[in-house]
Write a structure and sequence with these properties.
The protein contains 18 helices and ten strands. By secondary structure, the protein is an alpha+beta fold. Strands 1, 2, 3, 4, 5, 6, 7 and 8 form an eight-stranded mixed beta sheet that branches. A two-stranded antiparallel sheet has the order 9-10. Bound molecules: flavin-adenine dinucleotide. Flavin-adenine dinucleotide binds next to strand 3 and helix 11.
Amino acid sequence: MILDPNAPGFDHLEPRDREAIEATIAWFEDRGKVALKDADREHRWYSDYLAFQASEGIFARFLTPARDGGGDPERRWDTQRICAFSEVSAFYGLAYWYTWQVTILGLGPIFMSENEAARERAARLLAGGEIFAFGLSERAHGADIYSTDMVLTPDSGDGWRANGGKYYIGNGNEAAMVSVFGRIEGVEGADGYAFFAADSRHPDYELVRNVVNSQNYVSQFELHDYPVEPGDILHRGPAAFDAALNTVNIGKFNLGFASIGICEHALHESITHADSRILYGMRVTDFPHVRQAFADSYARLAAMKLFANRAIDYMRTASPDDRRYLLFNPLTKMKVTTEGERVIDELWDVMAAKGFERDMFFEMAAKDIRGLPKLEGTVHVNMALVLKFMPAYLFDPDPGLAPPERALAPGDDEFLFRQGPARGLSRIRFGDWRAAFEPFATVPNVARFAELAESFKRLLIDAAPDAEQQKDLDYLLTLGELFTLIPYAQLILEQAKLVDFPADTLDQIFDVLVRDFSAYAVELHGKTSATAAQADWARGAITRPVVGGERFDSVFATVRGLAGQYEMRR
Ligand SMILES: Cc1cc2nc3c(=O)[nH]c(=O)nc-3n(C[C@H](O)[C@H](O)[C@H](O)COP(=O)(O)OP(=O)(O)OC[C@H]3O[C@@H](n4cnc5c(N)ncnc54)[C@H](O)[C@@H]3O)c2cc1C
């Protein structure tokens, strides 16, 4: 279940792709932990890593969609191997994942474009080992991308001059093509939006500074009368806005896998440290609270992996008629990454001082894990999105809609580049979530959680949020946390069935979910705007998980079995 670089697995990938993953692991292990930590501490730009990926052609093969791959079967957009690379690169540090991630984002508007010359150029530059950037955010506007101040003014010919600044733009120091979002002067509303490709080496592109303290270069840049030719335009009008959102749809999925990779490495270090430490004549892993912390964090991490791996199937089988991925994708971004924070929090309480040490990976993990819920749309923004699906998901399931088959075979996920307008979310239908629970009715905490999910439906029927509450995002965020647990549980169970997951660990996962549900019910109870009927429901929803001593011992033994299994080479 937990990535071990000594035996990385990924058996579902093509041999050539597995080799690329193994070569990446070997590169990090050969360079070693001392160099990894030195580079992190000194904020050293990772040109050695980028040279490695260029020589292996990893970004070129993994990030060129088939339509622009010149018939090379290895160049395709295959979400399975992209997720594998996200997990492995983040296992060694978020910085190594981030440069790949913002390359993916930068490529989104290009490969979604009908501008063939730009696509051909991007494919050529990728083949040459170049990196890319996505210039959406601006200093003054944050999530409000409607208010862009990057302005394209018509020049005397058929082109424009771009003026304005961008902020928080990863790879903006070296990217061969920066996809920049802006608007055409004098064109009001959505018709004025434009995406164009800029070159970070052009003299009219001023690289102002790195705005973060890290190995990553998260740039502020300014364009000063930057010449934009018609051939640089990737999208215009509402299509430019859709390209921004659809690119983030592709990119934000990877954040969940980054979180998983970070947690896996941190878990190896934590269990190995705790299991070899004796205090008061006792092994640290024999303290009851430490055993609980490991069983819970392992269960949370296993749940993150089950959910995210199943979500890949929904991403890969998506089509204009099946857009269920639009719920499971923000959950991979928001829920999996916040669960990652909880895993690290729990492990850090066990690691204690060791988690601060300069030669531990953990010290990086504790810092980096915080970024993921905040990037590419905050938890709030993603929760607002998830809530749009709640009525159709809970009250209007389509019994004819079967869960997708597993999508493990190599392929090109071309639909992601033609997702179309981001409208009509509330009309998206889902299968009946209860079907995923049925095969596990005998697992005690799965059954108990199913009762809670049914009771949540009753809350929405008997004490539905009133008009004021429906505008109160603070209230809705807590309601959203309760709702989120249901689709999260659904995909965990779907995947558990597909991979024949051990029932004891599944029971432990649902033990955690029952406790989480109760905790969110308490939160709802405490909301100033909660009505008396809602508070009554919340009190009734507080539920104890079904306790199982043997099951707990067996899950803990599984985690403890990881002790000493893997340590990064020095
Ligand atoms: C390390 C790093 C790397 C980044 N890389 C890139 C990159 O390569 N390219 C790029 O374009 N951007 C990048 N970003 C920007 C990132 O995507 C933004 O941080 C994000 O869009 C949110 O903007 P903000 O942080 O300014 O928050 P703000 O938008 O200022 O939000 C402030 C608060 O308001 C809330 N809020 C805002 N809008 C809503 C809403 N509609 N509903 C509910 N709540 C809302 C937020 O949740 C938050 O709590 C990066 C940021 C960082 C820190």
